[in-house]
């Protein structure tokens, strides 16, 4: 199939490469020209404006957007809305909030342009392993686009999740679970590190061991093994951990539907704490302990 890929970052570039490898015809566009040129050398058709993207696509056109969630996506869709025609399809493959999907689909409906949301997981390994893909939108459009999802995903690695927003909703919860899993691994290794056995343990070997039939085996542990082999004490990095939005949205959804999600919520708050040095709240705690119990404090 012919499809345009807008946004050739870490995900978009490799997704375009996987589609090229699967025999699809890719029209590539990126804000910076060099990435487009790079993909042209690998067999894609280059475009250097959204207008040129549309002009190089056969009707009905398929445009996949892989951009940071929020305004970049809205701005791009706004421009495409003036260029595309009834029957064309926009696929939003980034980490958009599912309520934004619903709004965008409604805004595009009068123009006859279909909107499909695709939550994609796989990171930088997706090129070789494949991308787990969660799709929402009109079922007939999913059926039409299925060859694309089949090429991107590993075997049994894509699913039609339901109407508009369902794909990104399932991906949102997926990422919330990921927050909790990562936090549990981090805490577990810190308990090991703080023990009398820590100095003698090789955490790469421990990670490898736990992936051999144990109940906590996972791809994340494979990645932990790689990380520990490259930097045994993780001394080359700091403990600052960002969040990209999905964890916050998952926690908000839990609040909205009165679902107790203490693990995911605490894992999100742990990321917030990771960005603080000598936080004010901890200084308040130290001061209170000093006032009620005369406990010693460390002064700056």
Topology:
Elements lengths: L1 E5 L3 H12 L3 E5 L3 H8 L4 E2 L3 H6 L6 E4 L5 H11 L7 E4 L5 H11 L5 E8 L4 H4 L2 E5 L2 H14 L5 E5 L3 H29 L8 H8 L8 H12 L15 H11 L5 H13 L5 H14 L7
Parallel strand pairs: 1-2, 1-4, 2-3, 4-5, 5-6, 7-8
Antiparallel strand pairs: 6-7
Explain this structure.
The protein has an 8-stranded mixed β-sheet with strand order 3-2-1-4-5-6-7-8, with helices on both faces. The radius of gyration is 23 Å and the shape is globular. It has helices spanning 10-21, 33-40, 50-55, 71-81, 98-108, 126-129, 139-152, 166-194, 203-210, 219-230, 246-256, 262-274, 280-293, and strands spanning 2-6, 25-29, 45-46, 62-65, 89-92, 114-121, 132-136, 158-162. With 300 residues, the protein is of the alpha/beta class. The mean pLDDT is 93.
**How large a portion of the residues is in β-strands, by DSSP E?**
5-15%
**Poorly predicted ranges:** none
Report the order of strands and helices: EHEHEHEHEHEHEHEHHHHHH
Instruction: Tell me the number of helical segments per DSSP (H or I, 4 or more residues long).
Output: 13
Q: Quote the average pLDDT.
A: 93
Radius of gyration computed on alpha carbons: 23 Å
Any key phrases for this structure?
13 helices; globular; single chain; alpha/beta; 8 strands; 51% helix
Describe the structure concisely for a colleague.
Strand 2, helix 2 (33-40) and strand 3 form a beta-alpha-beta unit. With 300 residues, this protein is of the alpha/beta class.
């Amino acid at each position: 199939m012919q499809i345009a890929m807008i946004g050739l970052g870490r995900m978009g570039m490799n997704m375009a490469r996987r589609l090229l490898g699967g025999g699809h015809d890719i029209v590539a566009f990126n804000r910076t020209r060099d990435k487009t040129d790079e993909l042209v050398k690998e067999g894609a058709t280059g475009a250097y404006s959204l207008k040129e993207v549309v002009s190089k696509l056969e009707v009905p056109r398929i445009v996949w957007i892989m951009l940071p969630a929020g305004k970049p996506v809205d701005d791009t869709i706004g421009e495409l809305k003036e260029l595309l025609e009834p029957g064309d399809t926009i696929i939003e493959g980034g980490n958009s909030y599912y309520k934004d999907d619903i709004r965008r689909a409604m805004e595009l409906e009068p123009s006859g342009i279909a909107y499909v949301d695709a939550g994609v997981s796989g990171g930088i390994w997706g090129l070789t392993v494949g991308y787990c893909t969660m799709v929402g939108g009109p079922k007939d459009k999913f059926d039409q686009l299925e060859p694309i999802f089949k090429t991107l995903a590993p075997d049994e690695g894509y699913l039609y999740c339901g109407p508009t927003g369902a794909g990104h909703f399932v991906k949102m919860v997926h990422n919330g679970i990921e927050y909790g899993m990562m936090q549990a691994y981090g805490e577990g290794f810190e308990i090991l590190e703080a023990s009398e056995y820590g100095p003698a343990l090789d955490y790469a070997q421990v990670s490898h061991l736990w992936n051999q039939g144990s109940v906590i085996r996972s791809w994340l542990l494979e990645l932990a093994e790689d990380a520990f082999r490259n930097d045994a004490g993780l001394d080359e990095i700091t403990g600052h951990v960002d969040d990209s939005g999905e964890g916050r949205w998952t926690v908000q959804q839990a609040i909205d539907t009165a679902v107790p999600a203490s693990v995911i919520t605490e894992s999100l708050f742990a990321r917030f704490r990771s960005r603080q040095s000598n936080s004010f709240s901890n200084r308040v705690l130290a001061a209170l302990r000093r006032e009620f119990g005369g406990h010693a404090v460390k002064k700056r």
